[in-house]
Amino acid sequence: MDGIEVCTRKNRPDLYEMLKDLIAKHHAHLCEADIVICFNFNWKPDSDGHLKLVEVTRASAVTQCLSAIRVDLIITLNQQHFEKMDDTQKRACLDEALCRCKERQDQSGRTIGYRVSKIDFCGMMENIKRFGPWQTTLKTVQRLLNAEEEPGLFDAVSEEIADAEYELSESATIPMLPEGQSS
Q: pTM surpassing 0.90?
């Protein structure tokens, strides 16, 4: 396919070693998954300037039929930006992708395949715990959280409401109706 390169264990053993290590350390549920890594050479920033670094997809039935090897999941990386990353950032990027890979189970709890979840907060938190704020967006959020800025417009109002709710909960009583009566 134009603009896509499949990375094999032969031409990119470094990527598959990273993947193997991450699965062994943090994603044991994927130890039986057959994962293929690809590079996309054509991804450009969207109209808001956001650039996709990684995409995870489940191999379709057609992909599985056409493939000479078994494929459960496909991790596609933005080649231009991935190659500029240091090893820690590369591992973090692959880990972020793996955080989205989940087992599909039948009613008895037996694994019958894999699925890809949407980016969720819990998976993102695990990735940040392991690698810190490695993306530009995460670094920006960290700077904002660490900045000593003026309180926001509604901060004082929120404090007043919290104080009023506390005072109300400390002093208010709710009249109880005798048993059997309704209002």
A: no
